[in-house]
Amino acid sequence: MSSSTPANTENPTIVYGSGRKPDAAIPRPGVDLQKGNVAVVVTDPQIDFLSPQGVTWSVVGQNVTENNTVENLGRLFAASKENDVALFISPHYYYPHDHKWRFEGALERLMHDINMFDRQSALDLTNFEGSGADWLEQYKPFINDDQTVVTSPHKVYGPESNDLTLQLRKRGIDQVVLAGMSANLCVESHLRELLEQGFEVAVVGDATAAAQVPGYDGYDAAITNFRFLASDLWSTDEAVARLSELR
Questions:
Q1: How do residues 49-80 score in pLDDT, each as one tens digit?
Q2: CATH, residue 208
Q3: Is residue 74 situated within a structural domain?
Q4: Per residue in 99-124, pLDDT tens?
Q5: Distance between CA atoms of 203 and 183, rounded to whole angstroms?
Q6: Are 45 and 136 in contact (CB under 8 A)?
Q7: Pairing relation of β-strands 175-180 and 38-43?
Q8: Bridge partners of 154?
Q9: Cβ 205 vs Cβ 14: under 8 Å
Q10: Of 75, 111, 137, 240, which residue has the fewest beta carbons closer than 10 angstroms?
Q11: For the purposes of burial, counting CB atoms within 10 Å of the CB of 126, is it exposed (0-12), middle (13-18) or buried (19 or more)?
Q12: In this structure, is residue 8 part of a structural domain?
């Protein structure tokens, strides 16, 4: 089985690829991708997370830059299209009625306070183009191609509040290559729910990133849990190679 070098070789906790030995104490079941049964699922590939113009850049920007997250997500998008692998986007949007919630968790409160992912309404795209809720410009040819499945928005972190699982099941998909933003929030929450729903999941560890603030490293926390939970943890190099083998 193939393996690849970690994106950040200075961090020994990030170990990609099923052939690597340093973390052999943790089983690595792996995922044998099957043509027609696999999808690439990307959470929140949006300006607010992935652009210096986004409202979270001050806390995620360094990790996004170090991981080459923007470029790596672009490579995953391209690989899904080049190899006829279904692409699903699970976005995060907030409409005015979402700001009337009477209680929130810590990061929910922060997202509402900074107007993250805000849209006018579910039926109104006024001021959407180029806003924090919009896709990065370089991703639009992949997402807006009438083939990619854009699910209804998830409202907290996981897909329990949207139709991702339904859309995957309706296409007979039971294997997921998972990436996107942000690592310890939406990606990890999607991982946990997909596992509970019976999917095989490999996470692409350098096609995500997370907030890093004094005393708290969301990315390190996520990588630990990815290895404990997912069937495998891949680099973008390995994910692209495995998708290419499906031709």
A1: 899 998 899 999 999 999 999 999 999 999 99
A2: 3.40.50.850
A3: yes
A4: 777 877 776 776 767 677 777 888 88
A5: 10
A6: yes
A7: parallel
A8: 92
A9: yes
A10: 137
A11: exposed
A12: no
For residue 28, being part of any structural domain is answered with: no
Distance between CA atoms of 186 and 188, rounded to whole angstroms? Answer: 6
CA 220 to chain CA mean position, Å: 15
59 domain residue, yes or no: yes
d(CA 114, CA 75): 30
27 token code pair: 């089983």
What is the 3 state secondary structure string of the chain?
A: CCCCCCCCCCCCCCCCCCCCCCCCCCCCCCCCCCCCCEEEEEECCEHHHHCCCCCCHHHHHHHHHHHCHHHHHHHHHHHHHHCCCEEEEECECECHHHHHCCCCCHHHHHHHHCCCCECCECCECCCCCCCCCCECHHHHHHHCCCCCEECCCECCCCHHHCCHHHHHHHCCCCEEEEEECCHHHHHHHHHHHHHHCCCEEEEECCCCCCCEECCEEHHHHHHHHHHHHCCEEECHHHHHHHHHCCC
> What Cα–Cα distance (Å) separates residue 123 from each residue in 71, 94, 128?
31, 12, 11
Q: Number of structural domains, the chain?
A: 1
pTM (predicted TM-score): 0.88
The single residue listed with the structure tokens 């699903």 is: 88
Q: Provide the domain limits for residue 140.
A: 38-244
